[in-house]
Write a structure and sequence with these properties.
Keywords: ATP-binding, Kinase, Nucleotide-binding, Serine/threonine-protein kinase, Transferase. The protein is an alpha+beta fold. The chain is built from 4 helices and 18 strands. The protein binds zinc ion.
C-alpha cells in the first residue's frame, strides 16, 4: 500500500517480490530482510528492506503510523533543503506490503541504504559523541519550522540519508493519544532534546533561535560562514482525527514545493503544495516461489 500524504489515502497495487530467507538485522521490535522488486530489477539496481514485526500480533496501525511518520519527516527534510544548507538531508521513502501467501501478513518496506550506519540522536536527549552539525541542526530546524509543535529526532542512517525517525508532538498530551506512535514522548521528549542540543554553524546559518550555542567552529560550516538573509518560513501544522486516532499534516509555504519524483524508490514528499500521486508496480517472489502481494498504505 502506498500512502498519499496529500489526500491521506492509501492505494493498493499488486506486485511480486523476492525476499531473503534469513534476516540481515534484528532489532528489539523488527527483523529486517533484504528484498528485490522483480519488476524493476532489470531497470534499477536497488535492494529494498522488508521489516517484519517480531510480535506476530502487531497491530497493523503501528505500521501505518511508522510510514506516516517517515513521510512526514521526509517532508520536513525537503523544507530544510530548500534553504540550501551545505549538506542536504533526506529520508528514504516507505510503504507497506501485504504478503498474500503468508496469510496477509503486513510488513514495512523501504529502499536499502548501504554504507556505515550511524545514529546521531535519539528520542530522549542522546547525542552521538561526534555531534555532527547537519543532523543536529535538522532536528532543531524541525522544531522551529513547525512552530514548536513537534520535533523530528532519532536521526539515523547512512551519511545524511536517514530512516526510522521519531517525531515528538505537543498534540495529544491531554488525550493520552499522541500521533506517531509509542516513541512520541511529547513535551518531555522535546525538553530532553532542548537540554542536550548545542547550536552549531548550520543552526546559525538558518537563523534558528540559539540554544546552548557552541562557540568553537567545527564540522560542516557554510561557505564564508554566511547566514541567510531572511528567517525560515514556518509551516502551519494541522492536527486531526483519522480512524479514531490523532494524525498530523502540514502544507509547505508557497513556492517551496519539492521537486516531483519519478522513481519508485524515492517518492511521496509529505509537505507539498502541489498534489502528487506516485504509483508503484512490483512483482514478487518469496524464497524461490512466486508470491502475489498487495502494496498497502
Ligand atoms: Zn540549534
Amino acid at each position: 500500500m502506498i500512502f498519499d500524504p496529500n489526500t491521506r489515502n492509501w492505494h493498493i497495487e499488486k506486485t511480486m517480490i523476492k525476499v531473503d530467507a534469513t534476516p540481515f538485522a534484528k532489532g528489539g521490535l523488527r527483523m529486517a530482510y533484504h528484498m528485490l522488486d522483480l519488476d524493476l530489477v532489470d531497470r534499477e539496481n536497488v535492494t529494498y528492506v522488508l521489516k517484519v514485526s517480531i510480535d506476530p500480533d502487531e497491530d497493523v496501525d503501528v505500521y501505518h503510523r511508522d510510514v506516516e511518520m517517515q513521510l512526514f519527516a521526509k517532508g520536513i527534510a525537503e523544507q530544510f533543503n530548500y534553504y540550501n544548507p551545505p549538506k542536504k538531508v533526506g529520508f528514504v521513502g516507505a510503504w507497506l506490503l501485504k504478503l498474500v501467501k503468508r496469510g496477509g501478513q503486513v510488513c514495512a518496506v523501504e529502499r536499502f541504504i548501504s554504507g556505515p550506519y550511524r545514529k546521531h540522536n535519539n528520542n530522549y536527549g542522546f547525542v552521538n559523541e561526534d555531534e555532527r552539525n547537519t543532523p543536529q541542526a535538522f532536528s532543531h530546524f524541525s522544531y522551529e519550522v513547525c512552530k514548536h509543535q513537534l520535533l523530528v529526532c532519532d536521526i539515523q542512517g547512512v551519511a545524511d540519508l536517514y530512516t526510522d525517525p521519531q517525531i515528538h508532538t505537543t498534540a495529544g498530551e491531554d488525550k493520552g493519544d499522541r500521533p506517531f506512535g509509542k516513541g512520541n514522548l511529547g513535551q518531555k521528549g522535546i525538553d530532553q532534546f532542548l537540554k542536550s542540543h548545542r547550536c552549531n554553524a548550520i543552526c546559525r546559518y538558518l537563523k534558528l533561535p540559539p540554544i546552548n550555542p557552541r562557540f568553537e567552529e567545527i564540522g560542516t560550516v557554510p561557505v564564508d560562514n554566511t547566514v541567510m538573509q531572511k528567517e525560515i518560513e514556518r509551516i502551519n501544522i494541522r492536527v486531526f482525527e483519522v480512524g479514531g486516532r490523532l494524525a498530523m499534516g502540514g502544507l509547505a509555504p508557497e513556492g517551496h514545493a519539492p521537486t516531483p519524483r519519478a522513481s519508485k524508490s524515492e517518492h511521496l514528499p509529505l509537505l507539498s503544495n502541489k498534489k502528487q500521486t506516485t504509483k508503484i508496480t512490483i512483482t514478487a517472489e518469496e524464497s524461490g516461489s512466486n508470491c502475489e502481494c498487495c502494496l498497502v498504505m
